[in-house]
Design a protein that fits this description.
The structure is a homodimer. The first copy, chain A, is an all-alpha fold and about 350 residues long. In chain A, α4 packs parallel to α22 and α17 packs across α18. In chain A, about 70% of the residues lie in helices and about 0% in strands. Chain A folds into four domains: about 55 residues, Orthogonal Bundle (Annexin V, domain 1); about 70 residues, Orthogonal Bundle (Annexin V, domain 1); about 80 residues, Annexin (Annexin V, domain 1, Orthogonal Bundle); about 70 residues, Annexin V, domain 1, CATH 1.10.220. The N terminus of chain A is likely disordered.
């Protein structure tokens, strides 16, 4: 026997632990309830009635888009899943297939993405982001950094089921160099989600980050390690120490070369991990102000955040742009696409 | 809208999928049942009776080790968990703490490790493997490569609960260079577990592996990517192609320098991923034949494999050493430690 086991460590702190976990979950659930923009009516019809109405919306002369919006844009993920199940049983067809047949272009994409279960939707978006014509390091980073650890794991499970491969396998295969070095550990992470912070560690890792950045070693192993493995609470403490000790927010020091795509992704990663609402505000701002609106980004942010923190994002948007997000969406989008987006951000009747 | 969504892809293959998953699970369960060495009696006493007997074993003059073995070495993980729960309720104390108080040395370690839930046990072993005096890259690799994807994820969950950090966080912090480069993605992996094999890919990645190995670029990004992200079925196909195309098993070509610790770990990784029984046989052989038996390795392999594939490992052991594992354990271990090990490998009365 080489070394005496510290038996204090082997004891399982089962009880205190689950209490911590419960507290955290309650806190998260409460937060989500108040931050989501989705409006579900006080009394929701039973799923077979919703399924029947949707089926009616597809029939007859022309599709009834208004009816589709009035139902789907006002049901939460669990309710939408139930409607899909009941629909498949009643009409022998996947609701998504019928929506696909009846709808088109941006409206189709927003309805289909919204109707998917969140983990399935993220798996779909992530897979798209590894394909040649739709590849996007940003989408991969965004999914990896703004979902909870447990939700990211559900995405990886959904990815197996849907794509018969692992998420990290496709990400590793379709990226190279520094981008691979950052993205593979990001999508594979299962970060600790407790609030505990180790101050000594925060100070020493802030120093490490500053040294590497001063040397312009932006993709150094240590920078990658810290950003991809530390808990969000710990990382936040580290970056606060960075700011205090070196007089600059870290992202200021990562800006030397405005055209460096890796640095841009690194800054966005840090923003997603520490201030996701600001990240999404900027994404929406750029998507809307662009010549030729970026509907893919707009649709992605609205469908993925409506049930999570869209109220906070709207707040940031208003503060930064002096107009409401609803105002800008109404100005840039039109028709059923506009109506669906507005409903999802909470500007439709539930 | 930049690119037309391939809507065939967005449809969820829910039905065929869960059927595949069910078939796989049934297959795995059947395999485990026939490969495990653990013997559980046909009629198991209720957990409160086991708890009472264990409590009795601790009382009076001296501990009744025989009674402890006769109970704990013949209960599966679910049964042991129940006993722990009932014990805590009845006696207001964690069973593990009482076992710790009453037992000592190698016998203590085997009983405590065995009694832990498999995911908790692996989290404990992995944490130990990141500590200075007990650090072991091999233990980390072994846990990452020989558990199922789902079981490895349960280890990561147990690691959060027990150590208030993530597994990959500790592994990344306590390793450097090539070892970090290999171990972090190994412990973070959630490999696809389907049997599907892409033959084209297997051929091209076998070629890539051969090129890098010929250049002695043993820790090249591509080698790491292939070994840490591909499914075990895919990896097996790739390595078979390697053998066919280049006339040598890959591990033969990774042997140039017998003292290179990274190469040793790489070979062991490949063995764990493709032929775990052989890996464990060798580990047991070396642990037993060593001058001064390596009890830590012996205890680890027996406690972690008794409920999984110890029958297959015993078969390999017999074939390779011309004596049975039970014979060699009886020769090297003694007393209660020996009795516990023999019971776990199926040589005690259930």
């Amino acid at each position: 026997m080489r070394y005496k086991t510290s038996l204090e460590v082997i004891m399982s702190p089962i009880v205190s632990d689950s209490w911590q976990t419960i507290k955290r979950r309650v806190k998260t659930e409460w937060r989500v309830k108040t931050m989501a923009s989705l409006k579900v009516p006080a009394s929701v019809p039973p799923p077979y009635e919703d399924a029947e109405q949707l089926n009616k919306a597809f029939k007859g002369w022309g599709t009834n888009e208004g009816l589709i919006i009035s139902i789907l844009a006002h049901r939460n993920a669990a309710q939408r899943n139930l409607i899909r199940q009941v629909y498949a049983e009643a009409y022998g067809q996947d609701l998504l297939k019928d929506l696909d047949k009846e709808l088109s272009s941006d409206f189709e994409r927003v309805v289909l993405l919204w109707t998917l279960d969140p983990a399935e939707r993220d798996a779909y978006l992530a897979n798209e982001a590894t394909k040649r014509f739709t590849s996007s390091n940003w989408v991969l980073m965004e999914i990896a950094c703004t979902r909870s650890s447990h939700d990211l794991f559900k995405v990886r499970q959904a990815y197996h089921a849907r794509h018969k491969k692992s998420l990290e396998e496709d990400v590793a295969y379709h990226t190279t160099g520094d981008f691979r070095k950052l993205l593979v550990p990001l999508v594979s992470a299962f970060r600790y989600e407790g609030e505990e912070v180790n101050t000594m560690l925060a100070k020493s890792e802030a120093k490490t980050l500053h040294e590497k950045i001063s040397d312009k070693a932006y993709s150094d192993d240590e920078i990658i390690r810290i950003l991809t493995t530390r808990s969000k609470a710990q990382l936040n403490a580290t970056l606060n120490h960075y700011n205090n000790a070196f007089g600059n927010a870290i992202n200021k020091n990562l800006k030397e070369d405005a055209d460096n795509e890796f640095l841009k992704l690194l800054r966005a990663t840090i923003k997603c991990l520490t201030y996701p609402e600001k990240y999404f505000e900027k994404l929406l701002r750029l998507a809307i102000k662009k010549i030729g609106t970026d509907e893919w980004a707009l649709t992605r942010v609205v469908t993925t955040r409506a049930e999570v923190d869209m109220e906070r994002i709207k707040e940031e948007y208003h503060r930064r742009n002096s107009v409401t997000l609803a105002h800008d969406i109404a100005g840039e989008a039109s028709g059923d696409y506009e109506r669906m987006l507005l409903a999802l951000i909470g500007h439709g009747d539930a």
